[in-house]
């Protein structure tokens, strides 16, 4: 059982690091297009009401998802390296934080995808140019690849976060016994 527990711990930590990296990348790519308050999600809406609310909600979702994943990653890192185990409340907290990050990544990924698609449709209807045209003046403000990359990273981060949640649940079920006396992985080797 200790070998299975070690494999599950390392697998969960690697999955969490990947989820954290993808969530951070999604945030970075999206935030780069929001420098100086420029956010072009659905340019048809009023800038004071719809545009900034959708952008700020997406940014907040990315930030909160990254924070939740980072907290769970640090909890797992402490478990793996220092042997600091979480009690039942800590294990429940991990599942709650991962579930919250799933919701925020899903909402942010969908809002960026839908907002950018609607923006591209509006640009095409008003100017006849697509978002991939080099002559498009709107692409000076917003980089098409970064918006697409942000959505892709959000959805990949979502997949890894769901995987981490399932791994955490499986690990908690398979290692039900209290492992307070378990030594850190560094001392084992």
From TrEMBL:
The keyword Transmembrane applies. Residues 1-19 form the signal peptide. The chain crosses the membrane at residues 59-80, 92-117, 147-170. Keywords: Membrane, Signal, Transmembrane, Transmembrane helix. This is MARVEL domain-containing protein. It comes from Amphimedon queenslandica.
């Amino acid at each position: 059982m200790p070998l299975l527990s070690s494999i599950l711990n390392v697998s969960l930590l690697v999955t969490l690091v990947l989820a954290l990296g993808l969530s951070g990348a999604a945030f970075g790519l999206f935030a780069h297009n929001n420098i100086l308050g420029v956010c072009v999600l659905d340019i048809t809406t009023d800038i004071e009401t719809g545009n900034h609310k959708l952008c700020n909600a997406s940014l907040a979702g990315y930030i909160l998802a990254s924070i939740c994943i980072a907290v769970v990653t640090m909890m797992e890192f402490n478990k793996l390296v220092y042997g600091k185990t979480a009690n039942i409340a800590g294990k429940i907290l991990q599942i709650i934080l991962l579930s919250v990050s799933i919701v925020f990544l899903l909402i942010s990924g969908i809002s960026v995808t839908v907002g950018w698609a609607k923006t591209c449709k509006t640009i095409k209807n008003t100017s006849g140019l697509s978002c991939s045209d080099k002559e498009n003046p709107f692409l000076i403000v917003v980089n098409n690849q970064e918006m697409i990359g942000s959505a892709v990273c959000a959805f990949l981060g979502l997949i890894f976060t769901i995987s981490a949640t399932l791994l955490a649940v499986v690990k908690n079920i398979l290692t039900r016994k209290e492992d307070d006396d378990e030594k850190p992985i560094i001392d084992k080797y």
